[in-house]
Backbone:
């Protein structure tokens, strides 16, 4: 249905622009506000910080776009990130004696993270499709499981990466290639890959079809369960990638790692124009959604005009306005 | 009405107490606190376990029962169980939240048990016999004192605060009151939620926003770790820059012992206060001196000289 509405508006006039470019316009407006509050907002250092910081939520949100487009939801991503980070740290610390503190240990750690992410996603996917449990409940359950696992591994405290491995691993977050930090490269690659998968493959079209109407998709000989399971695996892989670039930042994981990331990821997806009930997904919008969310926090740190206690209010308002700009029937004649 | 209630409560209490005392000669002390879900609480859990082992070895007739609860409602149920199943003679409790646990603790008191409240006060005065707590305003004041000893009039600092709560306000207000008139400029203060990641993000933004920062009050050791990472990333660790955290995390204390110049001191807000409370509660049964009262622990400034006595390498915090 949304697909139809979309084409209809295109044919009519440039009304579509606000819907299509809404997230980008919102980001530009935010940047203008940020710049007018403090010119240091557009300094190279701050832009780099912003992009690097967006990478975590952005990468996870690319995965979430697939899950949500096909009519699912994944609440477990924040806890999953924390659990993967925790296991990765424990593993790398244990490998010091066998493999030393070099690149190999980090590569094994990262490989293990990717594997764990895929498995966790597979578990979510199979429980949802084969287990026939609502995605909300499955991932609410795994959210609690993953979160308590990291608390358990850390004995309630904080897991810290061996100091020497930290030296080897640190550049993954802090160093740059061609002036662009590695996390931003990863974010860019994930974004492009996600866009291609969503818009240029049958898989992407199947996701949209399933999200629009699962039964019709089923009768159209789409293997609904398989496609849906894959969306959760993609989500798991995205979480793992985000974790791989998160761990070298502070070299630690605790029960407060990744708290509320799931809601930020979902918010980024919806701000980007994807429909929460599925059937229409936009990777490009998701990227802007993630950037918008990070920018709001950044701007609030750049000003003392707004009381600290009202940060949540500002974030909430901007999220609602950003989505309203896209959804409201701008200038459409009343039918 | 109120009078009648008190009498009744007193009677029930007296009967329960007599019953418990007659049943066995062991002194049963329940210790109830939130499930450790963050590092500070994990440290508290560890110190409680250490104190349990130590006190039970010292006094064979003392039985300490440690229970942790994941939320206020479970803690209320845990308190009921301590009375009905264990028939405790005393309760050491760190309430999850003040409001919802005031009545449950009052019920334990009415059963005749001695009440020791730790850290977070109840919302009604006079329930606890013993109160043991850290000193939040003092933590702010001590931090400010140290800042003033290192900085001069006209120097700039930024402040990273905790989660918006009374605890955070007490620390912050005392800091600001102490620093007033010293000529040190507080450029801005933002909440970093006692969290490493938030500490990192907020500090990055402070560094982009203010070209001249001389020192950082991070208020908490977790925030300080994020702050230090941001300072290192920006290459602004020189020129006598320093960060003051708080709480007494073992890694931070270790750094102070080793002479870390970026984080040269820490201000104590010890999770070990639960052990103090357990000691005092046992003393209420064992000591010949009076014990009831309020124990407000000092917010000691930890420096290289005294750091060793606050270093617990086996604790998770």
Residues:
């Amino acid at each position: 249905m949304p697909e139809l509405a979309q084409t209809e508006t295109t044919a009519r006039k440039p009304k579509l622009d606000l819907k299509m470019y809404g997230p980008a316009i919102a980001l530009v407006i935010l940047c203008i506000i940020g710049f007018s509050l403090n010119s240091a907002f557009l300094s190279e250092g701050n832009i780099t910080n912003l992009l690097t910081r967006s990478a975590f939520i952005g990468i996870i949100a690319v995965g979430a776009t697939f899950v949500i487009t096909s009519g699912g939801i994944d609440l477990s991503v924040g806890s999953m990130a924390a659990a993967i980070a925790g296991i990765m740290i424990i593993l790398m610390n244990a490998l010091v004696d066998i493999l030393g503190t070099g690149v190999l240990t980090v590569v094994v750690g990262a490989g293990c993270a990717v594997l764990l992410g895929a498995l966790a996603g597979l578990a979510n996917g199979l429980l949802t499709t084969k287990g026939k449990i609502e995605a909300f409940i499955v991932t609410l359950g795994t959210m609690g499981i993953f979160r308590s696992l990291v608390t358990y591994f850390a004995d309630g405290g904080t897991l810290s990466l061996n100091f020497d491995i930290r030296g080897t691993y640190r550049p993954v977050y802090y160093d740059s290639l061609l002036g662009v930090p590695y996390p931003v490269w990863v974010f860019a690659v994930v974004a492009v890959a996600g866009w291609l998968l969503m818009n240029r493959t049958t898989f992407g079209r199947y996701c949209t079809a399933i999200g629009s109407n699962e039964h019709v998709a089923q009768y159209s000989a789409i293997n609904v369960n398989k496609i849906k399971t894959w969306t959760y695996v993609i989500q798991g892989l995205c979480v793992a990638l985000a974790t791989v670039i998160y761990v070298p930042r502070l070299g630690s994981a605790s029960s407060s790692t990744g708290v509320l990331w799931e809601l930020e990821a979902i918010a980024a997806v919806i701000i980007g124009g994807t429909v929460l009930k599925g059937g229409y997904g936009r990777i490009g919008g998701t990227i802007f959604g993630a950037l918008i969310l990070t920018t709001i926090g950044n701007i609030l740190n750049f000003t003392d005009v707004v009381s600290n206690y009202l940060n949540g209010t500002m974030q909430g308002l901007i999220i609602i306005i950003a989505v309203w700009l896209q959804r409201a029937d701008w200038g459409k004649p009343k039918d | 009405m109120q009078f009648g209630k008190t009498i009744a409560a007193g009677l029930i209490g007296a009967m329960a107490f007599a019953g418990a005392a007659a049943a066995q000669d062991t002194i049963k002390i329940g210790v109830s606190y939130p499930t450790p879900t963050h590092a500070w609480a994990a440290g508290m859990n560890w110190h409680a376990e250490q104190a349990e082992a130590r006190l039970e070895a010292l006094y064979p007739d003392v039985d300490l029962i440690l229970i942790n609860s994941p939320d206020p409602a479970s803690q209320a149920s845990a308190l009921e169980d301590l009375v009905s199943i264990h028939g405790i003679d005393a309760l050491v409790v760190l309430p999850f939240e003040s409001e919802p646990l005031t009545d449950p603790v009052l019920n334990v008191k009415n059963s005749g048990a001695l009440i020791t409240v730790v850290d977070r006060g109840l919302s009604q005065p006079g329930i606890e016999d013993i109160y043991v707590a850290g000193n939040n305003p003092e933590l702010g004041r001590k931090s400010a004192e140290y800042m003033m000893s290192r900085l001069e009039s006209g120097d700039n600092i930024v402040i990273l605060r905790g989660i918006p709560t009374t605890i955070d306000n007490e620390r912050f207000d005392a800091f600001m009151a102490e620093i007033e008139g010293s000529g040190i400029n507080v450029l801005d203060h933002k909440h970093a939620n006692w969290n490493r990641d938030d500490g990192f993000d907020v500090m990055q933004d402070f560094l982009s926003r203010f070209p001249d920062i001389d020192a950082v009050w991070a208020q908490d050791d977790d925030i300080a770790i994020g702050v230090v990472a941001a300072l290192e990333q920006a290459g602004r660790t020189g020129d006598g820059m320093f960060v003051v955290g708080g709480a007494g995390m073992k890694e931070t204390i270790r750094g102070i012992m080793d002479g870390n110049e970026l984080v040269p001191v820490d201000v104590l807000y010890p999770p070990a206060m639960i052990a103090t409370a357990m000691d005092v509660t046992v003393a209420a049964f064992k000591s010949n001196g009076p014990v009831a009262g309020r124990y407000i622990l000092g917010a000691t400034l930890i420096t290289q000289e005294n750091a060793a006595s606050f270093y617990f390498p086996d604790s998770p915090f």
Q: What stands out?
A: The first strand of chain B starts at residue 27 and ends at 34.
